[in-house]
Design goal:
homotetramer; 199 residues; mainly alpha; 9 helices; DNA-binding
DNA sequence: AATGAATGAGGTTTCATTCAT
DNA sequence: GATGAATGAAACCTCATTCAT
């Protein structure tokens, strides 16, 4: 039920999605949805929180599973979990990240909270990397800004991927790691063996 | 008039912005807007196209002005132009990039066209870089994907900047170049002198 | 069950009282009420008829018990029974007399029937009085109109009493008798010893 | 417009009256009503206040015009104004006095305010009478209670009149004066020449 | 050429009422 | 026989859009 509602939200956006259409798609009458969720906004909240929790859980699990490995492997594992979620829950990703940029809206706060957690998780990983390298985060402009750029690059690749779905999830992940971990300079000067990208 | 309308759109979002409020803010009556633009959607289009053209013009001009210099300087100049636009036209940036992630909506096509142009401009620069380095773009996963990641990182940093406006525009630009040009690995191993970020 | 429903009706009015609230207060599920009464309207009817019967019974009994006495004593006894009912069954009185004035509504007919019976009982008493006095009812404008005025004065005093509950029931009854039996003129000219009113 | 709305309210009651029906009857579309009044409740308020003001104005004017005359003439004039209003504004009277008894409702306060003013006006007249007679109001149970009974008798006669519209307005007024001013006792003992009632 | 006032269509929400269990 | 869950119909209200002035 939440899943079908999410499909409509993903296709139409919050405002354009009508409760009539959602109810019809779910296969129940509107009052069923209202007794279950209370209001259209609450339904939207519920879907966002569900999708956000799934995404975060997957990323946290991936980062912890790979704890034994090297630090860039953990970043890679987190990114892979992110793109896997995008691949398997396209509606959830669409709704989550479409509302992110919306200015007004009553959900702004909740949605940003989810993104903040993703950024925070990334930042934790980066902080570990920085510490392990004996580096000073401040010299790099702060790890939060780095995490923001990292996540933004991932989102952008995810959106591009959804419109060019030929690539495999490992290759998209490789592209993200290539640019953010190795950097264009290293890639171009051949100073590093890039992650595979299937091309 | 387009500017005032954009201010409302930026604050409220497309759906929540009412033609009444726009007309009042502009200081004319609604029929004036309708004879000028035809519909609410057309008004939105017009604003988006205007802001998008401004942004693109600024980026193109910056990239061309720095044509004499080294190639990463041209990337840096484009990024600087982008963040300068963000700083000076917050409403325009907010509207442009808020609608970018929206799945549905009648503007998807037009709005993505603008973003596609930004990505295309970035890709042109990257292609030049690749060519100059005697590198093969395909080995890197395609320069379009790289451009997508580059632009996405920029957007994300821009949004973060808007909520943490302490940094100067040069420092935000430095952060973007650090992660996308040098990469985290090089930054951490001290193999490169990072761009300044004010920290 | 009827009593609890009546409490809700008295507090909220017919439309604002929801079957959900009634069922919860009664402590059963809605279908129980529907099998017992058939519809919300029927439940309302049932409550009104029950309350109306109680009131009429009390008034009739009082008037008959005092049959031996003088005629104004019987009027007084009926009025006392009315105010006693108001005092002891506030919910019933509230529902009975709130729907009385409603123009539309599907209950108009049934509810007015109850009021008509109260007026009719009063008229019977007045007719006896007129006959005993050898008077002609028509000269007074018809005893039904007199009964209407008598009852209306009683209702109005009852409502006022509910909001100013200090007076004892005998005193409220006295006030009604004073104005309707003796009249303002007699009261003012001291031509009659008024009923006690506690002041 | 207010008049037509009042006709619907009088026929159906507040809840059963739909804005669709009102708009159709008025001959405009619903948004016209909403821009004029804001909400259904506001429309209802407006009608009630308009009708209430008309009624009060008429009664006050009548009582003042007859200031030269004897005191019971002023009471009579006020009552005549009341019944004249009932006769000429049946919808207004119906709405005013049907909402009076409603328990809940958001209008309770406003409507009771109007009735309170009617009672207050009556009480003022009674106080003058009492003073002129050198009488003590408290001995009679307080003039407010007397005014309540007086007004209630009038309302009741008015409702009865609406269903038995044969009588002329002067005769209905006479009936009210007969019972409240002279009293049943005086009427029956022939101690006073009753007001004419047309029978 | 500009406007105040009007509209049609549609959206969310509620509630009396009824099936399967 | 009682219930939890479901429904259909309708109500209020809003807003982009357009006439008549």
């Amino acid at each position: 039920m939440l899943r079908e509602a999410g499909a409509i939200f993903a296709k139409r956006g919050f405002h354009a999605a009508s409760m009539d259409e959602i109810a019809e798609r779910v296969g129940v009458s509107k009052p069923v949805i209202y007794t279950a969720f209370g209001s259209k906004e609450a339904l939207y909240f519920a879907y966002i929180e569900s999708a956000g929790a799934d995404l975060l859980d997957a990323m946290v699990a991936a980062a912890q599973l790979s704890r034994a490995g090297q630090v860039q492997e953990r970043l890679h594992a987190g990114a892979l979990a992110f793109f896997t979620f995008v691949d398997e829950h396209r509606d959830g990703y669409a709704v989550l990240f479409s509302e992110l940029a919306a200015r007004g809206g009553p959900f702004r706060r909740e949605v940003s909270a989810i993104r903040r957690q993703i950024v925070a998780l990334t930042k934790v990983l980066l902080d570990e990397v920085v510490e392990e390298a004996g580096e000073d985060g401040a010299r790099l402009g702060g790890t939060e800004a780095l995490a923001q750029a990292f996540v933004g690059a991932g989102e952008s690749l995810a959106n591009w991927w959804l419109e060019n779905p030929d690539a495999r999830v490992e290759d998209i992940t490789g592209r993200l790691m290539n640019i953010t971990w190795l950097g264009l300079d290293a890639l171009l000067r051949g100073r590093a063996a890039p992650w595979p990208t299937g091309q």
